[in-house]
Amino acid sequence: MDPVLPGVPPGAASSVLGIETSCDETAASVVARGPDGKGKILSNAVFSQIAEHSAFGGVVPEIAARAHVEALDGIIAAALADADKRLCDVDAIAVTSGPGLIGCLLVGVTTARALAAAAGLPLLGINHLEGHALTPVLTDDVAFPYLLLLVSGGHTQLVAVEGYGRYRRLGSTIDDALGEAFDKTAKLLGLGYPGGPEVEKRALRGDPNRFNLPRPLFGTKGCDFSFSGLKTALRIKAEALVPLSEKDVDDLCAGFQAAVAAIVSERTAHALRVQPWNALVVAGGVAANQAVRSALSELADKAGIAFVAPRSDLCTDNAAMIAWAGLMRLGAGEALEDIVARPRWPLDQAAEPLLGSGRHGARV
């Protein structure tokens, strides 16, 4: 049996340094927990790599890994300085060890290992998805169980968060992740990267009723999602209009976003009927989209439960959620485990394995 975390009795830890390098944000944060068990973000430093990847219309793994190497030491120093702490003042280091781009993960894991060894601190490998799943406990003190919609560039899942370490996947995308669909739509229409904010900005100027775009899986049983058919239908509409006018682009974005909001709301409604919930929570980069938030807020109101959407900087990849998950692990007195980088690491270990972004994705 692995040893109990050295020198940290259950509930004793008061602060953790979190490190996040799973994709294209280099982040570090210090999060503290008071005697009442509630968390407080003391610092949250993030370096975005948008400039490095925008010319390619998406994340280039090798460039992302090199950017992490160049930025991480400074970001960690900034997070400690902002929190008014030295490395020896924190109780442990928590690092994202999966899922994510393997080269990027290795930068964070290797750095965290070195710092923990030098300072004699416990080291915890955190599931990136668990960080998202537990964020509403940090920000809004949400009580278990709650329904989580996790929507990002690599993940689209409905998850029952029944307690710390207890996650049950109710549904997932069977093809593209929602953030991926936004990015591909933006690229198709000649918009910038990242695609989600660009599509949302143009949608505000467009007519959502001009184009009749499909709602895949609408009305079917279960809680799964599908976005590839919507993306294909939009491409066909766009190709029929070439050359596209500015109004064409605005209206296509508006129609696409309206379809997405409707799909997300309808599929999430199925999950709300699975069991009683204390809240409906949305997390991940796409959670910053106001149309998606509005549709989910209306859905939660109809169900008579709270709707929780962490502020935008805590929806996208950040290290505060990793530090908080580390604090919860320390508070539970969990055993120390070997920290390895895992490109795949399902939140629900008992669920059917996913292929690619979704059930029908490419094998990798």
From TrEMBL:
Primary subcellular site in the record, as a coarse category: cytoplasm
One Gene Ontology CC term in the entry: cytoplasm
Keywords noted in UniProt: Acyltransferase, Cytoplasm, Iron, Metal-binding, Transferase, tRNA processing
CDD domains: ASKHA_NBD_TsaD_bac
Chain residues that bind substrate: 150-154, 183, 196, 200, 289
Swiss-Prot/TrEMBL catalytic activity: L-threonylcarbamoyladenylate + adenosine(37) in tRNA = N(6)-L-threonylcarbamoyladenosine(37) in tRNA + AMP + H(+)
EC number: 2.3.1.234
Record Pfam families: TsaD
Transmembrane segments: none
Domain Gcp-like: 40-324
InterPro entries, sorted: ATPase_NBD, Gcp-like_dom, KAE1/TsaD, TsaD
PANTHER family linked to this entry: TRNA N6-ADENOSINE THREONYLCARBAMOYLTRANSFERASE, TRNA N6-ADENOSINE THREONYLCARBAMOYLTRANSFERASE, MITOCHONDRIAL
UniProt similarity note: Belongs to the KAE1 / TsaD family.
Name of the protein this chain belongs to: tRNA N6-adenosine threonylcarbamoyltransferase
Gene: tsaD
